[in-house]
Amino acid sequence: MIGAELFPNGIARYLIGGLLIGGGAAVIYLATGIIAGASTFLESTLSYVSGVPRFNRLPHVTSRDWRVVFTLGIVLGAGVYALLWQGGAWTTEVQWWRLLGGGILVGVGTRLGKGCTSGHGVCGVGSLSQTSIVNVATFMAIAIGTAQLVQAVGVSP
Amino acid sequence: MSDRGPAFYLAILVGGLIFGFGLAYSHMARPEVVLAFLQFEDLGLLFVMGGAAVVTGIVFTLATNTLDHAPITGKEYVRRVKSFDRNVVVGGVVFGAGWGLSGICPGAAYASVGIGNWPILWAVAGMFLGAYAQGRLRSRMADSSAGPATAD
């Protein structure tokens, strides 16, 4: 049996959720051939309102509409879960400055590193891409170090 | 584009719905759960990312080997392989620091909005700010290395 100390909430919710995440990416891939990542939305959406050349490169401008639809789908799909399983809204206790500061770093890092947890982590690793595996190993190691450091200096949550 | 009619956007929407539902169901849309994983208090997140990568791995392999073109777009099935350079590592370091500080990544942040977690808008705002800052900086650097500056 798997140790209860490593998995205090069991593994079913994690495994089922993970299979669904992969399934969502698979539906898009099989229907359209597109490998969907979540972080390019940040840049492609900026092309609607900014003239900065980086955001207005052809791959961003030609994909920005479906990326908005994909993101709306993610929000709505999670909303269905909240209504039917969660019993309404859930809010985090993590402090606002961690969310904002972490968000800024995530915005810089995912765009510089060509992908995030879904692009590199799910689709890239699923493609056995060495670039993605290096990126995932890097962000995983740094994230573990950062989270433990923040916890060690007494910030919670 | 001509290949992007209602069927195309419907497929994207349905895929997004399943993807977002999965993020919420797995609890990865909650920063606390990601932080608990990174602090080794609950390793369940391994099954979220592992389970998702196994599904995409199987589907990508089958599609690239046995099917030719996607029905809606006519696009050829390919794997996700991006070129490697220093930015892949530098970006991974910066993203990792942000993920470890906040417990949030882009897809999970969108799903977190969906579960009613309004404070996550701090993180969404931060991600746009970060993406804007790096885009502006990189466009500037590309300009200066390419000779005369162009208006932006």
TrEMBL record, chain A:
<keyword id="KW-0997">Cell inner membrane</keyword>
<dbReference type="Pfam" id="PF04143">
    <property type="entry name" value="Sulf_transp"/>
</dbReference>
<feature type="transmembrane region" description="Helical">
    <location>
        <begin position="133"/>
        <end position="155"/>
    </location>
</feature>
<keyword id="KW-0812">Transmembrane</keyword>
<keyword id="KW-1133">Transmembrane helix</keyword>
<dbReference type="GO" id="GO:0005886">
    <property type="term" value="C:plasma membrane"/>
</dbReference>
<keyword id="KW-0813">Transport</keyword>
<feature type="transmembrane region" description="Helical">
    <location>
        <begin position="66"/>
        <end position="84"/>
    </location>
</feature>
<protein>
    <submittedName>
        <fullName>Uncharacterized protein</fullName>
    </submittedName>
</protein>
<keyword id="KW-1003">Cell membrane</keyword>
<dbReference type="InterPro" id="IPR007272">
    <property type="entry name" value="Sulf_transp_TsuA/YedE"/>
</dbReference>
<keyword id="KW-0472">Membrane</keyword>
<feature type="transmembrane region" description="Helical">
    <location>
        <begin position="96"/>
        <end position="113"/>
    </location>
</feature>
<feature type="transmembrane region" description="Helical">
    <location>
        <begin position="12"/>
        <end position="38"/>
    </location>
</feature>
TrEMBL record, chain B:
<protein>
    <submittedName>
        <fullName>Uncharacterized protein</fullName>
    </submittedName>
</protein>
<feature type="transmembrane region" description="Helical">
    <location>
        <begin position="7"/>
        <end position="25"/>
    </location>
</feature>
<feature type="transmembrane region" description="Helical">
    <location>
        <begin position="88"/>
        <end position="109"/>
    </location>
</feature>
<keyword id="KW-0812">Transmembrane</keyword>
<keyword id="KW-1133">Transmembrane helix</keyword>
<dbReference type="Pfam" id="PF20398">
    <property type="entry name" value="DUF6691"/>
</dbReference>
<dbReference type="InterPro" id="IPR046513">
    <property type="entry name" value="DUF6691"/>
</dbReference>
<feature type="transmembrane region" description="Helical">
    <location>
        <begin position="115"/>
        <end position="133"/>
    </location>
</feature>
<feature type="transmembrane region" description="Helical">
    <location>
        <begin position="45"/>
        <end position="67"/>
    </location>
</feature>
<keyword id="KW-0472">Membrane</keyword>
